[in-house]
Amino acid sequence: MRTATALAAAVWAGAVAALPTQTRSTTLPSSWKWVSTGPLVFPKNDERNIAGIKDPTAVLINGTYHVFASTAKSEGYNMVYFNFTDFAEANNAPFYYLDQAPLGYGYRAAPQVFYFEPHKLWYLVYQNGNAAYSTNPDINDPSKWTAPEVFYPNGMPKIIADNIGNGYWVDMWVVCDDEEDPNKALCHLFSSDDNGHLYRSQTTLAQFPRGMSEPEIVLQDTQNIYALWEAACIYRIKGAEGTQKYLLLVEAIGQEGHRYFRSWTSDRIDGQWIPLADTEANPWAGEANVVFEGQKWTKSISHGEVIRTLTDQTLTLDLSEPIQFLYQGVDPNAQTEYNALPWRLGLITQVL
C-alpha cells in the first residue's frame, strides 16, 4: 500500500498532467471527487484508555503537520496534540494530552487552531460548555496552552437556548475578514446546536477575542435537523472573487446514519450562503464521492479540517494544490454508546 503522502503526490501529479497550464482556476467545482487513505491515527495503548480520536484540526508549517484532536471515552472528552512530518509515521507520533498544560482537566473538545497575526499568538478554540479559547506563542510547545477563557462571559446566548431543543451547543469556529483596517475587519464565531441551526457572532479584529455580539441564525433546517448537524468550517479562497470567495462546510447525517459534508459559498462571511455541493447524492465529501485506497474502512466522512498551509486568522485556502482534509471515520459495524465509538483519523485528497 502506498503511503498517504505518496498517494497525494500521485493524485497531484496526475491532475497537473491533465491541465493545459500549470495554474489552477480558483473556481470551486459543483461536484467533488476524493480518494481516502485507510485509518492513519489510532488511540494509544496507554493508561488513558481512549476509545476514539476525533475532531482533528491541522496546519502544515515548514514540513511539519501540527494536529490537535478530541480524545473520547465513556467518561468524557479532552484534547491531544501531536506532530509529524509524514503521514506514514503519523500513528507513531507521541501524544501530548492537553490536560497536562494549563488548559487543564475537564470537558474540552472539538478544537480549531489558527495563528492570530495581530497578537502574534496561536489560538485554540474549543467547546467546554461555552465557546472557549486558549493561547500559545509557540505551537511547538503544547505545555504553554493557557487556561480556558470564554467568548460569552454570560453563558449560553439566549437565541441558542431558545432554539437548541434536545440538542447540544457544539463545534465553535472562528474566521476573520481580510480587511487591513482592524476597526473595519470583523472576526466571526460560528457554532451549531445539533438541532438544525448554524449561528454566527461577530466582533472587530481590534477587539478580538472580546466583544462578541449576540449570535444570529445563519442557516436552519427545522424539518430535517440531521441535514444541518454540526462541525461547520469556513474558509477564504485565495484569489477568488464574487460569490465563491468563501466556502462553508457543514456535517450532515444521511439516511442510513452515515456522516457527510455539505457545502455553500458566499461573497462575505456575513453574507448569503449559496448551495454548492450540498446533498447526500452530491456531497462536498461523503460515501457517494470518496473512493478508498485499499479496504473501505468507514462509511462516514465526519468532523475534520482542511490541512492549512496559510495559518492566519483569515483561514485562507490556496487551491494551487489539491485540498487535503483530515477527518474522523468509524467502523460502520461498531455497536456502542456514542462517546465510546472507535473513531480513527483518515485523510482524503481531492481528485481533480
UniProtKB/TrEMBL annotation:
It comes from the Eukaryota. GO terms for molecular function: alpha-L-arabinofuranosidase activity. Its EC number is 3.2.1.55. InterPro entries: GH62_arabinosidase, Glyco_hydro_beta-prop_sf. It is found in: Secreted. The keyword Mitochondrion does not apply. One of its GO terms (cellular component) is extracellular region. The keyword Transferase does not apply. It catalyses: Hydrolysis of terminal non-reducing alpha-L-arabinofuranoside residues in alpha-L-arabinosides. CDD domains: GH62 (cd08987). Pfam families: Glyco_hydro_62. Residues 1-18 form the signal peptide. Keywords: Glycosidase, Hydrolase, Secreted, Signal. Transmembrane segments: none annotated. Its main location: secreted. GO terms for biological process: L-arabinose metabolic process; xylan catabolic process. Alpha-L-arabinofuranosidase involved in the hydrolysis of xylan, a major structural heterogeneous polysaccharide found in plant biomass representing the second most abundant polysaccharide in the biosphere, after cellulose. Belongs to the glycosyl hydrolase 62 family. This is Alpha-L-arabinofuranosidase. It comes from Humicola insolens.
